[in-house]
Amino acid sequence: MNLPDNPDNYFGLTMQEIVRVPSDRVGVLIGKKGNTKLKIEELTSTHLEVNSDENSVIIRPKKKIEDPSLIWVAKDMIKAIARGFNEKIAFTLIDPNIFLRIITLDAKNKKKVLKIRGRIIGENGKARRILEEITRCNISVYGNTVSIVGRYDDGEIDIAQEAIEMLITGVKHGTVYRFLEKFRIQKKAEGVKMWKLRDDIGFDRMWEEFSKDLEKEKQGEDTEKEN
Questions:
Q1: What radius of gyration do the chain's Cα atoms show?
Q2: Which residue among 110, 119, 151, 156 is least packed, with the fewest CB closer than 10 Å?
Q3: Which domains does the chain have, with CATH numbers?
Q4: CA dist., res. 173 & res. 128, Å (int)
Q5: Which DSSP symbol is given to 194?
Q6: CB of 160 within 8 A of CB of 138?
Q7: H-helix or E-strand spanning residue 26
């Protein structure tokens, strides 16, 4: 299906999207020698007009675009880069089963936002890595947002979002890890080979450490009940 001579208009609808990009992410969006911008245009049959002064990008379809929905794919790619993902992760959004979700940290003050960010990232990034490894999603914590890029068809992005929202609301890490472990066991029972987990000694050691933490936490809860 080709667009009419005026690519900004499709069946009477204005085919144009504008995305705001933080100033420190504009260069990442453009890429070395403009390669990232060109790749997005190539994948989505769109034209991107980057305004560095206003930190914005205007997305327009090329005349020979076959699928008008690619405009929104381009928009999500740009938003992913704007929210801290690298271009390789952003490009995966061309897969119709991979989605971007952005959670805004609605905290009253900066100190609260930093605390929530710390809970999601964890010590030395361990909490975020556990979330990414088990759900096979990519997670970016940038500014006052937490963004997820992951598969929808296997329910992985839903699990990742639920786990993150649990951490945001103050649920203990141990409870969240148990929730994730149930998901991991379920996937193994279904015969799903967990992405990056197979023969990953580093992850196994990390999970062993967290298992010990869970046991200590449980013992602490039992002690509190006895007292």
A1: 21
A2: 110
A3: 1-94 (3.30.1370.10), 95-227 (3.30.1370.10)
A4: 11
A5: -
A6: no
A7: helix 23-30
Give the 3-state DSSP-derived string for 86-122, with helices as H, strands as E and coil as C.
Answer: CHHHHHHHHCCCEEEEEEECCCCCHHHHHHHHHHHHC
Tokens at 104, concatenated: 């805004």
* Ordered per-residue pLDDT tens for the chain, 227 residues: 344 444 445 444 457 899 999 999 999 999 999 999 999 999 999 999 999 999 999 999 987 777 888 999 999 999 999 999 999 999 999 999 999 999 999 867 889 999 999 999 998 898 999 999 889 999 999 999 999 999 998 889 999 999 999 999 999 998 998 898 888 888 777 766 554 444 444 555 555 666 666 666 666 555 555 55
Whether residue 3 contacts residue 65, with contact meaning beta carbons closer than 8 Å, is answered with: yes
